[in-house]
Design goal:
The chain is mostly beta strands. It has a 5-stranded mixed sheet. The protein is built from 5 helices and 25 strands. A hairpin with a 5-residue loop joins strand 3 (51-55) and strand 4. The chain has helices spanning 19-24, 117-124, 156-159, 212-215, 334-337; strands at 6-7, 15-16, 51-55, 61-63, 74-81, 107-116, 132-137, 141-143, 146-148, 151-155, 165-170, 173-174, 184-186, 199-205, 219-220, 236-237, 244-249, 255-257, 259-268, 277-281, 289-290, 292-295, 303-311, 314-323, 349-356. The protein binds ligand MTE.
Length: 359
């Protein structure tokens, strides 16, 4: 398939799936899958690649790919959602220097195959005081003048739930380099940043990872510190992705003909909660119609929906919102979602379209 992705940087490290392509494929084709990398893609030779597992465990072990063949394997379907999804809407409220202006294109669904992390942790023996599992990648990111591998951590409870896997395959084929060959963590239901690519080390810790991407980034801080307006160290580390809904088709500012207009998109509950309903508004939230679920979510994946709206000529703001059966819902107001680095936007999704009269 032709690569239709939306490019966000000069080296094509950060690319998003074009929304109408997303809407056509419940499982995103590998060559259309969004990519988010903070440094150059490392070239890894699978013959010499090793996974070190250490820290608070009884038997620290270094595994080759051959050593790992003895573990069982399973496939988990999971939608990977970047924490920066829908950040571009925040730009209506002011600039977010240094942050990528992702729209809804920073989310894709894959069928990930690999070893349940739990099995590897059982093998090395979880030690006393181990409360977090840190993943470190073999890429080389530079921050504050230091080079280090991208990393982050999950709590032991999540690490042991059987759905967190050390993936070697995506959609039935070996992981492409850009997605973490030869092995990556996949932490379903959590922000993409915890699914560390090019995995080199797993460390059991008594406290969350001190990696820059856990301690200083991917944290939600609603009020800037006037002395350090870009710093979010005092914010809350992100883990589960929030309930969300996105309109994929039509796209912002698209011209459509008056009459019946098909609106398509996805919705996703937080932490694998099924979506219980999606509603679409033709007029910026004054009236709502229920959307039809065209492909229900399976565990950690998105749900696809569509609705037919009857639109008269003029400019219309279409809105989508979803529910996942718990009290927390999406805010109508973008300002409630805003935070210093523009993460986790799950306000109602608004898309303005221009409706033309038919001759
Ligand atoms: N892992 C490493 N080693 N380096 C990275 O830059 N980016 C993270 C995560 N894992 C990253 C990483 C982020 S922010 C996201 S959203 C996902 O990878 C993106 O995964 P993908 O490129 O396979 O879509």
């Amino acid at each position: 398939m032709t690569d239709h992705r939306l490019i966000h940087d000069a080296e094509c490290l950060n690319t998003g799936t074009r929304p109408v392509i997303t809407a056509d494929h419940f499982v995103t084709p590998v060559d259309q899958f969004f990519t988010r990398s903070h440094a150059k893609i490392p070239t890894i030779d699978e013959a010499t690649w090793r996974l070190e597992v250490g820290g608070r465990c009884s038997r620290p072990t270094t595994f080759s790919l051959d050593d790992l063949r003895g573990f069982s394997r399973r496939t988990v379907a999971a939608t990977l959602v970047c924490a920066g999804l829908r950040r571009n809407e925040f730009l209506l409220l002011g600039p977010l220097p240094g942050e990528l202006p992702w729209g809804p294109e920073a989310a894709s669904t894959g069928e990930w195959t690999g070893i349940p992390l739990r099995e590897v942790l059982d093998h090395v023996g979880i030690g006393d005081g181990a409360r977090y599992v840190e993943f470190t990648g073999l890429d080389s990111v530079e921050r504050h003048g230091r080079q280090f591998g991208f990393g982050g951590s999950v709590d032991v409870e999540k690490a042991l739930n059987g759905d967190v896997i050390l993936a070697t395959h995506l959609n039935g084929a070996p992981l492409p380099h850009v997605h973490g060959f030869p092995m990556r963590a996949v932490v379903p239901g959590w922000i993409g940043a915890r699914s560390v690519k090019w995995l080199g080390r797993i460390t059991l810790l008594d406290e969350p990872s001190t990696n820059y991407f856990q301690r200083e980034a991917y944290r939600v801080q609603h009020t800037p510190d006037p002395a350090k307006p870009r710093d979010v160290t005092a914010g809350v580390a992100m883990n589960a992705v929030p309930l969300n809904a996105a309109i994929l088709d039509p796209s912002p500012e698209q011209q459509v003909c008056a009459g019946s207009v098909r609106v398509r998109g996805w919705a996703m509950g937080s932490t694998a909660r099924p979506v219980t309903g999606v509603e679409v508004s033709p007029n910026d939230g004054r009236d709502w119609v229920p959307a039809r679920i065209t492909a229900p979510g399976a565990g950690y994946t998105w749900t696809f929906w569509e609705a037919t709206l009857h639109l008269a000529p003029g400019r219309h703001t279409l809105v989508a919102r979803a529910e996942d059966g718990v009290a927390a819902s999406q805010s109508p107001d973008l300002r409630d979602s805003w935070n210093v680095k523009g993460y986790g936007n799950n306000a109602w999704h608004r898309v303005a379209v221009v409706v033309r009269a038919k001759a």
